[in-house]
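Sample log: Nuclease SbcCD subunit D.
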Amino acid sequence: MRFLHTSDWHLGRSFHRVGLLDAQRAFLDHLVATVRERDVDAVLVAGDVYDRAVPPLPAVELFDTALHRLADAGVPTVMISGNHDSARRLGVGARLIERAGIHLRTDPAGAGTPVLLTDAHGDVACYGLPYLEPTLVREEFGAPKAGHEAVLGAAMDRVRADLATRAPGTRSVVLAHAFVAGGEPSDSERDITVGGVAAVPAGVFDGVDYVALGHLHGCQTVSERVRYSGSPLAYSFSETTHRKTMWLVDLDADGTVTAERIDCPVPRPLARIRGHLADLLADPALSRHEDAWVEATLTDAVRPVEPMARLTARFPHTLSLVFEPERTTEDPEASYAQRLRDRTDQQIAEDFVAHVRGGAGPDDAERAVLRAAFDDVRVAAAEREVTAG
């Protein structure tokens, strides 16, 4: 059976205030064309269909059009909700839409109930695990604690229990939206840390033939059977080096997996340039970036006059301007952003405690209080999205 694995469409998202709806429409055109041209048997969409819980109307209309086109192609589609989606909104009309071959899996309670697909070699049980917010679904799964590994493990126990009731030789696919250990994040994913832990081990998915992951925006292989498709478009300059693709996955009769990357359309290349403004404007080697979306980091010791206007004269699609004056690391005037780079909210809070105490950082109990506070804020935000949905 041949699958097309994609995720993280983020319909309605912009890139540094540049609307991406046309680029997202071009991607969906490409997806439907690939389905037809490459004899795809089923499409797997591993979450974050929308960019936010209440998406703008043009994004909803684009999604509606995509569903009609996939249904017209006669190819089943299995789709789960991600942490950016409102599961309740995305799942409206799911049972009715299922009649057209579009299987929306947004309810955690249905984790152990597969979509059954069939080819010449028998059944493929396709399980959709929507994004599982640990605090909100812990009771549903009877998980021993509210953590990502605990709730995903409990959901996978349901998957394995159902699979054990299927005929011998039944192959299996799981869609999940999670941060799996070994994956490489970028700047454009929303933090899903709980209790200081965001990642779950890949072993939680043991026992199935293929795991179609969403959440991380870079296409990557955690193992031969566990893969991220990544987002079809770049949503931050941290993705400058990404090759945006989908996975074309063949699942053989014995469960063997082979996969091929299918490139997605690129609306405009990304470039990060760095140096003194005068050098950036004069360097002939940078001419290849003149049509790209550009993030420019200026290292001039003194902020230049009208830097954006001067940059856009050469690089008309400059979207981001960063100032990082060349200073020694001991310089007390080093930028605040520079000092905080690569530090988590928890670490920043602990640094603040140490600062106001004259160097005495928090003890273990105080760290636990800080961690609980950050978790409560994040869960409250998730609950607001559920209520809004």
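Observation: The first strand starts at residue 2 and ends at 6.
Observation: DSSP finds eleven helices and 19 strands in the chain.
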